[in-house]
Amino acid sequence: MVDNETAKLIDANMTRPGGTNVTEMITHSFGIELADFFTDVISISIFGKPVLDPDYFNTEDTRETVGILYGQPKDAKLLRIESSGLESSHHIAANMGFIVPKIGESNWSIIGSLTGTQEQIQRDLNRIHLVTDQGTYPPSC
Question: What's the predicted TM-score (pTM) here?
Answer without folding.
Answer: 0.81
